[in-house]
Specification:
CATH architecture: 3-Layer(aba) Sandwich
Shape: globular
Largest sheet: 6 strands, parallel
Distance between the termini: 6 Å
Helix content: 25-40%
Oligomer: single chain
CATH topology: Rossmann fold
Order of helices and strands: HEHHHEEHEHEHEH
Strand order of the largest sheet: 3-2-1-4-5-6
CATH superfamily: Isochorismatase-like
Strand content: 15-25%
Length: 234
């Protein structure tokens, strides 16, 4: 399958001009790499600390958890739920890289850029119910942005014969992008479901998608990704 990479259409950002997009295209960036035949879905950091517990605007969600994205996260969660249903029905592996509990600003052996990333509230780290793992789906606790760094993820994927990663979750500019870059570097085909990832600011989200589409993977919509997971296009 060679899904369209929605590269040029992301050039309508305030921070990017048509000339900027043309420069990338002239350099040969933005072409679809295509997907393989043995995918896995990664649900990255879909925890209440990244959404909040209520479907409210980001400013309100942040009163509960400063790292919450509010409606921007919940809109993506609805699409992730659809992808999970398709993956599980087809027997596609689903894995859950997630933020390990951090109780201080040096948790995991590194200094956090923001003290708000550390929280002793274990409830904040619970998986969002609508996109939570079921029995048998691996949980990959991580202390760093990439789901690959100092985790068992690569071994889990190799054991399952995975050649393609479908990325969902949060945040687009942080853990999703870091995971996409490492997945590409490790030889996996990479797709990010553009409406199933989220971030705090629209411009950060969209520029990150632009960068991923330019260099590291394909962008899919939820309907296209769902068809792929069902085996209808591979």
């Amino acid at each position: 399958m060679s899904p369209p990479t929605d590269f040029a259409s992301l050039g309508s950002l305030p921070a990017l001009t048509d000339a900027d997009v043309a420069l990338y295209q002239a350099a040969g960036f933005g072409h679809s790499a295509g997907l393989g035949s043995h995918p896995a879905v990664l649900v990255i950091d879909v925890q209440y600390r990244t959404t909040g517990r209520e479907r409210v605007p980001i400013e309100q969600a942040m009163r509960e958890y400063p790292t919450a994205c509010g409606h921007r996260g919940w809109d993506a969660v609805d699409n992730i739920a659809q992808l999970l249903a398709a993956a599980r029905a087809s027997g596609t592996p689903v894995l859950f890289p997630h933020v390990a509990v951090k109780t201080d600003t040096t948790s995991g052996g590194f200094r956090l850029k923001s003290p708000t990333l550390a929280s002793g509230d274990h409830a904040a780290y619970e998986f969002v119910a609508e996109a939570a793992p079921i029995d048998g789906e691996p949980l990959i606790a991580k202390d760093h942005p990439s789901a690959f760094f100092a985790t068992s993820l690569i071994s889990q994927l190799v054991a399952r014969g995975v050649d393609t990663l479908i990325l969902t979750g949060a945040t687009t500019s942080g853990c999703v992008r870091a995971t996409a870059v490492d997945a590409f570097s490790l030889g996996f085909r990479v797709a990010v479901v553009a409406d199933a990832v989220f971030d705090r600011l629209s411009i950060v989200h969209e520029v990150s998608l632009f960068d991923i589409a330019a260099k590291y993977g394909d962008l899919l919509s939820t309907p296209v990704a769902t068809d792929y997971l069902r085996g209808e296009s591979r």
